[in-house]
Amino acid sequence: MIALDGKTSLPARAGLSEALAALPQDTGAAGFGADIDAAHEVLLAPDASAEERETALLGWLRRSQPCLFGRLAARSWQGPGASKGLGVDICWFGPEDLARGHAHLAARIWTARAAWKRRAVTGQSSAFLIVFNDERLARALPGPEFADLCRSLADSYLSEWAPLAFDTVYAEAVPLEQPDGSLVLFKASTQLFYTAAHQRRNHDRRIPGGVVISVNAPGHYAHSLVTRGLLPDLGAAMDFVRDNAHRTIGNGGIGHPDRLTSSWHNPARPGCPADTFSATHQIDVLVQKDVVGDDTLRLGTHREEEIWPSLRLDYLTAKDFSVGDPDHGWANGLPIEHDALLTNPWEPVVAANTPDFNY
After folding, report:
1. Source organism's superkingdom (predicted)?
2. Is 297 left (phi over 0), alpha (psi -120 to 50) or beta?
3. Helices then strands (H, E): number in the chain?
């Protein structure tokens, strides 16, 4: 197991300030869609307060985030009724933080990450957002420089795995206390969102303000709904979570002039398992190089060779998986001792666009 030991010694990469200064910028007047442009009036305003910026981002998430879990989490400050019990913690960085470099980012993220996991123990939070709010990131063009910088920012988060690799699934571990007082860990996805995804291959990953790493633990959320008495049993909780995941698929055309979505449900046909879908990127790869580095606009259609046709939702179930099954951590908690609260037992998995890929 890997402990969150406060590691801030990161691999040698280009200095953060230098990498930011070298990012090719989108200088066009086309904007990023009316919804993001409106949010940028606050998020990119030099005189906006931290509270105003966070309010602007949460407002955008409630209205324009394709992921229904993101919309629910953005309502968590309105109470468990509005958010359906889904809580989120946010770690926010502005230009002044980025200017202080990787060690500063890593130290702050470690502190926020540990605090989030302690809140997660009681089911108060199943999601974590790391926000890098900077105009240079918001206006950065996709390309090799941007892909390298996104990977470098991810190093500051998952420092136990640094240096991170492209095209790899990195699972987070989120603890939850059981009714008998024992602890279990659930897997959480780690996903990259950024402004320049607008009208590109992964349009569903667009977000205002720069770059955001989003962490979401659906199994933890489902189990917490039961332990907190918000739903009667795990079957009902998993049905609710799976339904929201199912309705998120195909919802990614928001803000696109052709409503071109980046994911869609596979048609029912012999030999095609239920609850499979396709997307133009591997949704749980943290930094997919050929996506984050691709500046080509997608306006009318997607390219056949870019499609991942065998993505799954069937792991969101009340079924008991064996500990050795990769689906176990998503649906079932892995028992741990209390002193392992801040550990992450799941190793990175290199993604493969094959029907049997599982993580």
Report:
1. Bacteria
2. beta
3. 13, 13
For residue 237, the Cα-to-chain-centroid distance in whole angstroms is 21
Q: What is the pLDDT of residue 3?
A: 45
Q: Which of 120, 137, 295 is nearest to 201 (CA)?
A: 295
Compute CA 312 distance to the chain's CA centroid, rounded to the nearest angstrom.
17
Mean pLDDT of the chain: 94
Q: Per-residue pLDDT for 268 more than 90?
A: no
Find the DSSP H helices in 5-94: 16-21, 34-43, 50-64, 68-73, 80-83
- Note whether 110 and 118 are within 8 A (CB): no
Helix (H, G, I), strand (E, B) or coil at 302: coil
**90-111: pLDDT as tens digits:** 999 999 999 999 999 999 999 9
Rounded average pLDDT over 184-210? 98
Mean local confidence (pLDDT), 222-240: 98
Query: What pTM did the predictor assign?
Result: 0.95
Contact assessment for residue 164 and residue 13, using Cβ atoms and an 8 Å cutoff: no
H-run or E-run covering 352: none
Structure-block tokens of residue 224: 């917490």
The residue assigned the tokens 């926000």 is: 131
pLDDT tens digit string along 102-161? Answer: 999 999 999 999 999 999 999 999 999 999 999 999 999 999 999 999 999 999 999 999
What is the H or E stretch that residue 296 is in?
A: none
Domains of the chain, residue spans: 2-350
* Cβ–Cβ under 8 Å, residues 213 and 129: yes
3-class secondary structure for 179-194?
CCCCEEEEEEEEEEEE
